[in-house]
Design a protein that fits this description.
This protein has 1 helix and 15 strands. With 221 residues, the chain is mostly beta strands. Strands 1, 3, 4, 6, 11, 12, 13 and 15 form an 8-stranded antiparallel sheet that branches. The chain has a 7-stranded antiparallel sheet with strand order 2-5-14-7-8-9-10. The chain is globular, with a radius of gyration of 19 Å.
């Protein structure tokens, strides 16, 4: 209760049935109900960025990432800044052939080179893949190796500056991805050329960015 253990290793003898909430002799209010099973990364992970614990759990690679006003932010304007999901979410074990990652993002800038997006296949700062979104309405899947950038796919979307949009990133197989924005599919089973490895998270280029409601789940939905 309030982060203090009250009952530890109690065995009531029940092996099935339903779990819920109860009141006795009073009215009650409940909020922020969650169920956690410590089997990550095989169980869903969801982060609304409403507390400092998120800032501590995510693994910032570069730039000043912080949680403020219910969003995860990077206020610096540099070439590239990356932050990765908590270590128990990635890298992916071999038995996970597919997963879905959802996140909301906002780009306050308006230039074609001001990008926010999702990073994956992340091995180090010069070996990763990304899906990035320009506020001019252009989305790209790119592979970065060394100092080279290879564009694997390009699509248009209703992008504009200072407007939140919802991204759904799906690892369809160990080397292909699908991506949707606000429910509209932009990329379908784009081959990345590599078997999925490394970790994944958020990325931005030459722009500050805001992110919210990060949600990882096993399988494709």
């Amino acid at each position: 209760v309030n982060a203090v253990p009250v009952f530890v290793d109690i065995h009531p003898g029940f092996s099935d049935g339903l779990l819920g909430l109860v009141t006795r002799g009073t009215i009650g209010r409940f909020e922020k109900v969650s169920l956690e099973i410590p089997l990550a990364p095989t169980e869903p992970y969801r982060e609304p960025f409403d507390g400092e614990i998120a800032e501590a759990n995510w693994f910032a690679q570069s730039g000043a990432w912080s949680v403020a006003n219910g969003t995860y932010n990077n206020a610096t304007v540099q070439t590239t800044n990356v932050t990765l999901l908590p270590p128990d979410i990635g890298p992916m074990p071999e038995q996970i052939q597919s997963f879905t990652f959802r996140v909301r993002m906002l780009n306050p800038y308006s230039g074609p080179g001001n990008l926010v997006g999702v990073v994956f296949h992340h091995q180090d700062r010069r070996d990763y893949a990304e899906v990035v979104f320009s506020p001019t309405g252009v989305a790209q899947v790119r592979r970065i190796q060394g100092f080279g950038i290879q564009t694997l796919a390009t699509a248009s979307y209703a992008g504009r500056p200072r407007t939140w949009f919802d991204v759904k990133f799906e690892l369809v197989s160990l080397n292909s991805i699908s991506v949707s924005v606000d429910g509209q599919q932009l990329f379908k089973e784009v081959s990345t050329g590599d078997k999925f490895s490394g970790r994944f998270g958020l990325i931005r280029h030459w722009a500050p960015g805001k992110f919210d409601d990060a949600w990882w789940d096993r399988g494709v939905f």
